[in-house]
Specification:
Number of strands: 12
Bound molecules: pyridoxal-5'-phosphate
Distance between the termini: 68 Å
Shape: globular
Oligomer: single chain
Number of helices: 16
């Protein structure tokens, strides 16, 4: 593609994107595709001859767009609703054009240093102390894996050289609540500790980690020779966005000499609001924390920010410089090479989009948008609370609301099935996409608000659809059975 063609197609593409961002709600939020549609529609082999970009783009529109689930749709209220904002998209475009690979300071001084600057800004916005150093990874799963690797480094003598196998080592333990994200399980598995090393401690009736239960679990483990390695506290759990009592957990971890990692992947950004500052109370005692700007900070996927008070431990665990990557400034210790801060060698210029988002929104704009999402969720929670047939099943501290449709006279198992039917019916509308979870074994509908273009009208429409389909299902169900 020559420069003239690039200009032509580039302009067309930007026009297409601008139209898409403004009118993504013209598409059904959930793809109507059946499994295999796209594989069947595309050739099984790469073309021998070059194809014109117009034809490639036609296929993109004709074959791929119908297979998109539109995360950038204002009716997307599933999982954690997220936004790829316009400034973030432009940053992503530039990042692709520049193709920076910031393994070494030398291979991209701008990317290396902008990461430091952007994360320092974010650190201050979150109210984290200065001794938290930041680094960008792709996802929270990887951030948590690095946190637990650092915990392993300080707990298991000689682990970097000798590993875990074939040695006379005690059993180790990592703790989190029964509401923590599955990325904690995967991290434990990935770093060779074995899944049984993870103990999921009970949460209380607000789905927050029960500190007494944690204390008791640690004591019971110590009594049998098991060595506590780390605790993962969650600020904004995946199902209900519950907030673990950070200060109490941190105090316990300090007493026990155990690494504390804070998973604030979704809700951490809410600490920017004076009203929500307290969610990170006690964080100065933690060892590490993850916050994902790709979740609730309007930055296109993927960017996860990992902050650590002991980044030297992460470097001890991972730094290794082969001859072909040595530099004079690196050897002199005059620069930080990002490849030392983790398992990854090459890394994309992710800080560019984050920096562009933070500058374009400004701290005030970020706060306003996060607060707006929280307000929308509180409105929905109020509607649910006021409805005789819907029951809210968890507090809604942020922008996620969990509830069940529970008309009188039906047993819980039947209600599980009916709620699943209700969710399917609402999602089939194509107007909104809502997801589900299970709490204490029961099926729960979960509405997440987090898109820049989601307004009260979209939330009202989701609520109308829920009520309308609930009425239709109720009319079609057999007469009420006794509970
Ligand atoms: N932690 C929490 C609390 C989450 O909700 C999620 C995903 O939703 C993750 C971690 C994993 O995030 P990622 O997809 O960035 O690995």
């Amino acid at each position: 593609m020559n420069a003239a063609e690039f200009r032509t197609y580039g302009h067309q593409l930007v026009d297409w994107i601008a139209e898409y961002l403004e009118h993504s709600d013209r598409y059904p939020v959930l793809s109507p595709n059946a499994p295999g549609d796209i594989v069947r529609a595309l050739p099984s082999q790469a073309p021998d001859d070059p194809e014109p970009f117009t034809r490639i783009f036609e296929d993109f529109e004709r074959l791929l767009v119908p297979g998109l689930t539109h995360w950038n749709h204002p009716g997307f209220m599933a999982y954690f609703a997220i936004t790829a904002s316009a400034p973030g998209i432009l940053g992503e475009l530039l990042s692709a054009a520049l193709n920076q690979q910031a393994m070494l300071w030398r291979t991209s001084p701008a990317s290396t240093e902008l990461e430091q600057v952007a994360l320092n800004w974010l650190r201050q916005l979150l109210g984290l102390p200065e001794d938290f150093e930041g680094v960008i990874y792709d996802t929270a799963s990887i951030s948590t894996m690095h946190a637990l690797t650092a915990a392993r480094e300080v707990t298991v003598p000689g682990v970097r050289t000798q590993g875990l196998a074939g040695r006379d080592l005690p059993r180790y333990r990592i703790y989190c609540s029964d509401q923590a994200h599955s990325s904690v399980d995967k991290a434990v598995i990935a770093i060779g500790l074995g899944h049984d090393t993870l103990r999921r401690v009970a949460s209380d009736d607000r789905f927050q980690l029960d500190v007494q239960a944690l204390d008791a679990a640690i004591a019971a483990d110590r009594a049998t020779g098991i060595v506590p390695m780390a605790v993962v506290a969650t600020i904004g759990t995946t199902s209900t966005t519950s907030v673990d009592p950070l200060r109490a957990i941190a105090t316990l971890c300090q007493r026990e000499g155990v690494w504390l990692h804070v998973d604030a992947a979704y809700a951490g950004v809410a600490a920017m609001l004076p009203t929500h500052r307290a969610i990170l109370d006690g964080v100065e005692l933690a060892d590490s924390l993850v916050v994902n700007p790709h979740k609730w900070l309007f930055t296109p996927f993927d960017v996860s920010t990992f902050f650590c008070r002991r980044m030297d431990v992460v470097r001890t665990a991972f730094s290794l410089t082969p001859d072909y990557l040595k530099t004079t400034e690196g050897d002199a210790g005059a620069v930080k090479n990002l490849m030392d801060t983790g398992v990854q060698l090459g890394r994309r210029f992710r800080s560019l989009k984050l920096w562009m988002v933070m500058r374009s929104f400004g701290a005030s704009g970020l706060r306003r948008e996060i607060a707006r999402h929280i307000d929308l969720a509180q409105q929905l929670a109020a509607w649910v609370d006021a409805h005789p047939d819907f029951v809210r099943v968890a507090p809604a501290p942020f922008s996620v609301v969990c509830f069940r449709w529970a008309p009188a006279g039906l047993d819980p198992e039947r209600l599980d099935l009916l709620n699943a039917r209700l969710l399917d019916a609402v999602n089939a509308s194509g107007e909104v996409f809502i997801s589900q979870t299970k709490l204490r074994g029961r099926y729960v509908i979960r509405v997440a608000i987090g898109h820049e273009r989601t307004t009260i009208e979209h939330v009202r429409r989701a609520w109308e659809l829920l009520q309308q389909h609930a009425r239709e299902i109720q009319e079609s169900v057999p007469p009420a059975q006794p509970r």
